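Running low. Any example?
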Amino acid sequence: MKKGFTFIELMVVIIILGLLTMLVFPSFLKRVEDAKITAAKVQIKSLESGLKLFYLDNGFYPSTEQGLKALIEKPTSGRIPQKWREGGYLDKPSIPKDPWNNDYVYLSPGRNGEDYEIISYGRDGKEGGEGADADISSSKIE
């Protein structure tokens, strides 16, 4: 007698594994998107810290045109900061992209009357949306 699995036994195992995958995979994807949303909020808070240091040194926030780039390179147009910190205001010499590999949007003043606003447009990279496609704004992060 040969030992081993029959074709039917193998098919049953494959079907069971397929069913388990169908149950687990969607919740895994949700966790990945939740982690990206959290990462975007953390990055926005870090950018806000750089903006606050810029403000403390210069008495104003960069303009929308100067953008977040003013945190890593001294602006050469618009209102020029007189006490810009050599080396910039971020730990790294580049502006990070959001977790979906899109640029953060910087507005000064912000849309709701704040001094500034930093926005990630979420997974879809477009304004508006729900869930993982929803906008993440510095004005709504606590």
